[in-house]
Amino acid sequence: MPPPDRLPADLVLEGGGVKGIALVGATVELLRRYRFERVAGSSAGAVLAAFLATGLDADGVLERTSRLEYDRVPDAWAPVPVVAPAVGLLTRSGLHPGRYVTEWVRRELADLGVHTFGDLRREDPGDDPTLAPWQRYRLVVTATDVTRGRLLRLPWDYRDYGLDPDAQPVADAIRASLAIPFFFAPQTLRDPRTGRRSTLLDGGVLSNFPVEIFDRTDAAPPRWPTFGVGVGDVLSDGEVSVFPHRRLLPPPVRLLDSLVATTVNGRDRTYLAQPCVRRRAVSIDTSGTRATDFDIGPAERARLVSAGTTAARDFLAGWDWADYLRECRGVATG
């Protein structure tokens, strides 16, 4: 059982494919001191965010995440090696359909009593009064609508598509956020009012780490901190890539691969370099692991979890809420 005196906080989890394993180590460490009122995530961070939004404690998080068979995540369109991924890429814009991970998430959440966003409604009279009814949820999942050219914060933005946020399946939003360009097939969102269809991709295309998503917009000081946990913030000499076997690709495709990977990995780095943003962000060094290295073994998975644990411990050792309020929010705490 979690300690009864844990402090409230909000949490934002960065995406990063298989690097998301490191998020588990950091989150479990944070859960020793904090309980999370609201959680947001992109891509792999959205999966963990959904579990946390159900109220799982550290043991529950470890148990649920351990059930994912990572080598099955890059699933196949058909039982034809090499050919099926190529055909999928050409006809459905993705090497893999993403069925396994979607159904795994759907099944695990259903076991926890969560099916739609309506199951994660949150009403708190102390919230920012500018929050609309369609923003009062324990979970926010980010995705990118490349048809309309906009970042989606789900379930908040479903209403712009003529959809009831309460009725939308959580697993469907997570699957859209997981749609790493070209690796997983994109998802489609249809506006029932007009019949217009939008193509949805990984939230990281526009914002992989929206640490500010829960910040108050009224004049009141925050009641508790919002922490961010990010992966891959340390620069390395390795090539960024989405496609496996990158060196086998023709030069134009390698360039496109690098462009997409750079967009997903580097979009938020200028924002994260701001001192007061970094003050509230746990940065995990996942150098040496690519987002799509789903075939890593137990030793590498354990290394990533350990890196997350160490990063969170180091962060907490230097974290001071009163100092942050005074220096970054201008709030007198004496």
Summarize the structure.
The chain has 334 residues and is an alpha/beta fold. It has helices spanning 21-30, 44-53, 58-65, 83-92, 99-111, 170-177, 251-266, 269-272, 275-278, 298-318, 321-329, and strands at residues 7-13, 34-42, 94-96, 139-145, 150-154, 182-184, 187-190, 197-202, 226-231, 281-284.
Provide an overview of this structure:
It comes from Geodermatophilus siccatus. The active site is at 43 (nucleophile), 202 (proton acceptor). One of its GO terms (molecular function) is hydrolase activity. Keywords: Hydrolase, Lipid degradation, Lipid metabolism. Strand 4 and strand 5 (150-154) form a beta hairpin. The protein contains 11 helices and 10 strands. It has helices at 21-30, 44-53, 58-65, 83-92, 99-111, 170-177, 251-266, 269-272, 275-278, 298-318, 321-329; strands spanning 7-13, 34-42, 94-96, 139-145, 150-154, 182-184, 187-190, 197-202, 226-231, 281-284. By secondary structure, it is of the alpha/beta class. Helices cover 34% and strands 16% of the residues. Strands 1, 2, 4, 5, 7, 8, 9 and 10 form an 8-stranded mixed β-sheet that branches. It has a two-stranded parallel ribbon with strand order 3-6. It has a single domain, classed as 3-Layer(aba) Sandwich (Cytosolic phospholipase A2 catalytic domain), CATH 3.40.1090. Helix 1 (21-30) packs antiparallel against helix 3 and helix 1 runs parallel beside helix 10 (298-318).
